[in-house]
Specification:
mainly alpha; 119 residues; single chain; two-stranded antiparallel ribbon
Length: 119
């Protein structure tokens, strides 16, 4: 679902916001968390209804399933995202140091040379 508005003759796509506050297009992990949460709510609510035939309690279980699955997926995805960002930063710093110290006397991979003639 794409919403667009015309700005000086150009179409500008507005981001899709869930409940008007959660921009699921630009926030990492938001889209997957909401999708898995809604699937979890359907499974939990329908499963509880098939077992007990209690409509109101099944709706409550569905809402609880949505909250639990959404938060679980959110925290798991954000943890992996943060871990990936840290690994990228470490690799970037390593490449920067490699470029900076390559072919200098501070290069840790450079083998020390000893002159036999200059004693």
């Amino acid at each position: 679902m794409e919403f667009s508005r015309c700005l000086l003759g150009k179409k500008v796509l507005q981001p899709f916001k869930l409940l008007g506050i959660l921009d699921v297009e630009n926030i990492p992990c938001a889209r997957d968390s909401v999708l898995y949460g809604s699937l979890g709510s359907v499974v939990a609510g329908l499963g509880h209804f098939l077992l007990t035939s209690r409509i109101r309690r099944s709706c409550d279980v569905g809402v609880g399933g949505f909250i639990l699955v959404t938060l679980g997926c959110w925290f798991h995805c954000r943890y992996n995202y943060a871990k990936l960002r840290i690994q990228e930063r470490i690799a970037r710093d390593g490449i920067k140091n490699k470029i900076l110290y390559e072919s200098t006397h501070l290069d840790p991979e450079r083998k020390p040379t000893t002159d036999k003639n200059s004693s």
